[in-house]
Amino acid sequence: MSISGVTRTGTEDPVVRVALLGCGTVGSQVIRLLREHGDDWAARSGARLDLVGVAVRDTSVPRDPWVPPELLTTDASALIDRADIVVELIGGIEPARGLVLQALRGGRTVVTGNKALLAAHGPELHAAVEAGDADLYYEAAVAGAIPVVYGLRESLAGDNIVTVAGIVNGTTNYILDEMATRGLSFEQALQQAQALGYAEADPTADVDGHDAAAKAAILASLAFHTRVSVDDVPVAGIRGISAEEVSAAAGAGQVVKLLAVARRTTGGVSVRVHPALLPDTHPLAAVRGAFNAVVVEAESAGRLMFYGQGAGGTPTASAVLSDVVAAAGHAIRGGHAPRESAYTQLPLLGPEETPARTQVQLRLVDRPGSLAAVAGVYGEEGVSIESVHQQRSDDGSARVVITSHIATEASLARTVERLVTESRVQEVISVTHVEGE
Amino acid sequence: MSISGVTRTGTEDPVVRVALLGCGTVGSQVIRLLREHGDDWAARSGARLDLVGVAVRDTSVPRDPWVPPELLTTDASALIDRADIVVELIGGIEPARGLVLQALRGGRTVVTGNKALLAAHGPELHAAVEAGDADLYYEAAVAGAIPVVYGLRESLAGDNIVTVAGIVNGTTNYILDEMATRGLSFEQALQQAQALGYAEADPTADVDGHDAAAKAAILASLAFHTRVSVDDVPVAGIRGISAEEVSAAAGAGQVVKLLAVARRTTGGVSVRVHPALLPDTHPLAAVRGAFNAVVVEAESAGRLMFYGQGAGGTPTASAVLSDVVAAAGHAIRGGHAPRESAYTQLPLLGPEETPARTQVQLRLVDRPGSLAAVAGVYGEEGVSIESVHQQRSDDGSARVVITSHIATEASLARTVERLVTESRVQEVISVTHVEGE
């Protein structure tokens, strides 16, 4: 933001004009916090934050009592032209994309929580930042109040990150936690999450992993100084997870979590979202309910974890306000948001190069040689086996749990394809990734 | 740092001159990382980082092989005058203080990991920053690689922090962890920590809590936008913790941790360092060995936790390098370290106003009325009791554990003073703070 855009009124603090696009749960909390703590923001940034308008689709919808009706407008584009800082909380691609591009190209500062937009159109947004000599902040786009965007974008600039693994979707973590602690089925836990407002009426974006994939793309781009789009991220959600699988994991000292995992290897970067088994001693295993956490492994720093509330109106508004205060401070005292850092241009690894481990549960014909046949399939696909646990079932079949060493996604997939057609395999009950030491 | 201080050489990246003061464990790692990953730092900051000298006390001491002997000098003051960024890793007050003040007053950027200097002379350093229009970064001063200084100084600027509670000394956490998990006495665990290099030959600064107190002062200053000196922080260390106390805690579902705790109340700020009992479900209870973690409770964000390695050459060097890369980026692209934010000028609470809870273990004369007498002391001092657990001992006395509700430090101290002289109390075995829900 150009300091020339700042209005100075006599001996008072200079004024920075803030426009809000969208007035849902988060936007309403941003308005409340702007109004309740104005003196704090002024003392910290050197500027008085003046909310000049709130763009909404329908001005007649009932709002929280602190939302000033006279500031509501349906003309977002005209509002942008009256602002120094544009806070975009509309979500989704359009009209958010067009409005954010307008603001950036016009040299304005944009603060957004829009993970879908960033993960699908990041390069276009960063090009608009350059074109407009503008600034783009997006702490609220990943993991709500947890300052992990700041962490990766700024405070770990002097280290080389090896892995980022996170629980970045509270809805799915709540569902998996309820399944683990109360023995619910996926459907039961989902209904409960919907009743409590943790899950949307259409839960697709959460339970199928698309929300986590967008965040994974953003985290990987920041961590590895490269470009990762949400389209580059293979996704598996949690619909297929059964109560039995969760309870078997608990019996084996493990938990099932939906993880966003990004790794840097010598060959490039792999970014994926999938349910995974973690040992219950892993720091992410203790992340309960709707909380989020991100574990970063860096060459010098070793393991770091950032933990907190990943969603909700007030926590997400905290991240938005922090970006707004930082932006206002930069406007007054000089400085900018970091520009896109994508200098490594690392290749994205395909399944033949992506390292992975799985745990496969099978039901085998209980005859001599069945296990040898299965082990033979693993061997022929070049997958080493770490452990095999076999139990006799009531129906005379044998239930076998096979955990692999690290192999590639492709060889593990081929192994499962062959197991499905192997005559001594009655059923492939589940295939789950394994993460953590 | 003024951009005019940057040397531009033709079409190459501009050069930022870095001087290192001190070449111990951390300093040596900083040199290694500067040399091994120069291209990364240049790509991220826009500047080539040129190490122009390393000030040491004695140039003849053997060094790691990557330390260039030709860069060693004993004239730190002259070296400073040749640098844009001065990295101070001498530690302690003098000569570090004089050299840092020289650099700041000369308009140079200082990156320091010197918690003792910051906690004792913060206002003087910040005044020198203003006088020289300089920049001061100190991520490495608190909790090593964990970006909690960044978190409090920048990424939570849009929230109001209520509590900061942290395990910020790895030595004492290692000792307490060994006492808890292996039943060692304090002396045994300390000797082991010394043998492994986790504790110094003179362990005073760690085990008596002074290192943690300096960090507590820095964290509280940042969290509450006020000034807190290490002299304002009451300290109790871990020398008095017995193996019995640690094992009794474990039996009650608790752990003993040395905590730095800073709280904002309506009346002001309290900052303290003391051993405390935490329920084993508290996120800090799971912090093992020499790891550090800081829990921040903020009005909007709720509970956040930052976790990682709090000490060691390489993790601390990660924090130093990140500050250096950020500072170089600011030199090239504009921007500054945040200036001191001390606008709240909150009063520091004395013991009569500081909220606290304790757990007291007593041995009582096993006669009717003993417990009533003890409870009477609590009542007369205005301290409510949350729970009482009584056990008969083999020697005919009764062992009683009394946990209070929240009272004040002063009333809890008066209660203990009176218990010591109460005729039915044979012994006050231990008095420990209680933190967490």
UniProtKB/TrEMBL annotation, chains A, B:
Needed co-factor(s): a metal cation
Catalytic activity: L-homoserine + NAD(+) = L-aspartate 4-semialdehyde + NADH + H(+); L-homoserine + NADP(+) = L-aspartate 4-semialdehyde + NADPH + H(+)
GO molecular function annotations of the record: homoserine dehydrogenase activity
PROSITE patterns: ACT (PS51671), HOMOSER_DHGENASE (PS01042)
Residue ranges of domain ACT in the record: 359-437
Enzyme kind, highest EC tier: oxidoreductase
Key words, A-Z: Amino-acid biosynthesis, Methionine biosynthesis, NADP, Oxidoreductase, Sodium, Threonine biosynthesis
Signal sequence interval, chain numbering: none
Pathway involvement of the protein, from the record: Amino-acid biosynthesis; L-methionine biosynthesis via de novo pathway; L-homoserine from L-aspartate: step 3/3; Amino-acid biosynthesis; L-threonine biosynthesis; L-threonine from L-aspartate: step 3/5
EC number: 1.1.1.3
Highest taxon of the lineage: Bacteria
Functional description taken from the UniProt entry: Catalyzes the conversion of L-aspartate-beta-semialdehyde (L-Asa) to L-homoserine (L-Hse), the third step in the biosynthesis of threonine and methionine from aspartate.
UniProt-listed NCBIfam families: PRK06349.1
Family (UniProt): Belongs to the homoserine dehydrogenase family.
Protein name: Homoserine dehydrogenase
Organism: Georgenia deserti
